[in-house]
Specification:
With about 450 residues, this protein is mostly helical. It has 17 helices and no strands. Helix content is about 80%, strand content about 0%.
């Protein structure tokens, strides 16, 4: 009976954190959904350009997301120890690193046209994609600062702040898309390129709103957060980068495989790219569920380690993974049941819908391993264990998933007709391998932390 009560208590604690995080992710992920739907109403070429542009932008943006995810466990553990100064330093470091990283990454997006030519992207798509990438690049510096502030509030177990900022950004995105894509208020119609400018404006809006909310929150460590400080002791970047860089590279590896697949699929024509984008966009929308739970697990694990409550860790882990598996089963059934309606929502083209339904059914299968690997990653982040998970994900995605996907999708392995289905099978295999490897790593970390019981534990050794 006592065990049941403890599990229910932990479930309630995780869900209280996960709820606002899901809504925050819903708001931010919906921006991509809005971009895809509104660009698709202009033309298939504009939709394909946004699809290719998004596939290039998001690995780069997710590198920043991973890098700045270091703020969450740093803040959570400092909050658990009651160290307000360490909370403030972690957020400030994140803001500075986010700004500099965003500025440095802007030219990367400006120079992508030769890469698209090399990858065989359709000639009619490349010019629109190039202008889209130029527009969206201006949102990177603001996005970097916003991510630091968002992760700081999440680490303080106040995800409602990022939820409010996310919905404000979504509102700005919808209005800006409408004005810029279709040429309202006397402005020229920019088509898919307007999505890029709208996203940049949305990131700036979320930054300003998140800063306002944190300034007014009076949370531990947020006082004097935006005032100049002469104390430079918190600017030793080594610990931050040792934690954040592996996460940034890991997210880049995870997302870049989707980008590379999209570029390979682009060789098959705009219609196939559009169908692939429909399946990818909708599953990305659903990914907010396991990702939000993973963030909640990072906070709970980090706070427990900061409080030196090591015996609680195993209960947090099993509760979180159980919730992840249950949610994945529900999303799998949702996709399988409503895939025709989902495809019709994106495009009225019957042939496009038929191919999209096939890809959505494959995407339904990968919900299960995707949820497990995402939440194992969240657990390991809370332990500040990031370097070994990076190597494991590199093996799963680039050592298994991409070679198999290429062989099935373009190489004709097993007599399979070349098409996007083979790449999705490769993704399923990659996610399955990642979930198994990261799950084993979680078991190792739990044994190590429990073996250190009675000592002050702040990090796991790789």
């Amino acid at each position: 009976m006592k065990t049941t009560k403890l599990l229910l208590h932990e479930t309630a604690a995780l869900l209280r954190l996960t709820g606002p995080l899901v809504l925050a992710q819903l708001a931010q992920t919906s921006m991509g959904f809005v971009d895809t739907v509104m660009a698709g109403r202009v033309s298939a070429v504009d939709l394909a350009a946004v699809a290719v542009g998004s596939s290039i932008f998001f690995p780069i943006f997710l590198f920043m997301v991973g890098l700045l995810n270091a703020v969450t466990p740093l803040v959570a553990q400092a909050y658990g120890r009651g160290n307000r100064s360490a909370v403030r330093h972690a957020i400030r470091q994140g803001m500075g690193i986010g700004l500099v990283t965003g500025v440095l990454l802007m030219p990367v997006l400006w120079l992508m046209s030769p890469a698209m030519v090399w990858m065989g992207v359709s000639a009619e798509v490349i010019p629109i994609t190039g202008r889209y990438l130029f527009a969206i690049s201006f949102g990177l510096p603001a996005g970097g600062i916003f991510l630091a502030l968002r992760n700081g509030s999440d680490g303080l177990a106040r995800p409602r702040l990022s939820m409010f900022a996310g919905f404000f950004g979504l509102l700005v995105n919808i209005l800006a898309n409408y004005i810029l894509i279709y040429g309202k208020l006397g402005l020229p119609a920019l088509g898919g390129v307007g999505c890029g400018w709208a996203t940049s404006l949305s990131l700036l809006a979320m930054l300003l709103f998140q800063a306002l909310l944190l300034h007014r929150s009076r949370l531990a460590g947020t006082d004097r957060l935006f005032t100049p400080s002469r104390d430079r002791s918190g600017w030793a970047l080594g610990p931050f980068l040792r934690l954040g860089l592996p996460m940034g590279i890991a997210l880049f590896i995870e997302c870049s495989i989707f980008a590379v697949i999209a570029l390979f699929v682009a060789k098959l024509g705009a219609g196939v790219v559009a169908a692939h984008q429909i399946a990818l966009n909708f599953t990305s929308l659903l990914y907010m569920l396991p990702y939000s739970l993973a963030t909640a697990l990072t906070v709970r694990i980090g706070y427990a380690i900061g409080k030196n409550r090591v015996r609680r860790l195993r209960r947090i882990v099993w509760t979180g993974l159980g919730l992840a598996l249950g949610g994945a089963i529900l999303t799998c059934l949702l996709i399988l049941t409503f895939s025709p309606a989902i495809a019709a929502l994106y495009s009225p083209d019957r042939d496009l819908q038929k191919l999209a339904v096939t890809l959505l059914c494959l995407a339904a299968i990968f919900q299960l391993p995707d949820a497990i690997q995402a939440n194992c990653s969240g657990i390991l982040r809370g332990c500040k264990d990031t370097r070994v998970p990076l190597l494991l994900m590199l093996l799963a995605y680039w050592g298994i998933g991409l070679p198999v996907g290429y062989g099935l999708g373009l190489g004709g392995w097993g007599g399979l007709t070349p098409g996007p289905q083979g790449f999705w099978i490769g993704l399923i295999l990659a996610l399955t391998a990642a979930s198994a490897l990261l799950g084993y790593r979680v078991a190792i970390m739990l044994r190590r932390l429990e073996g250190a019981r009675g000592q002050r534990v702040t990090t796991g050794r790789p």
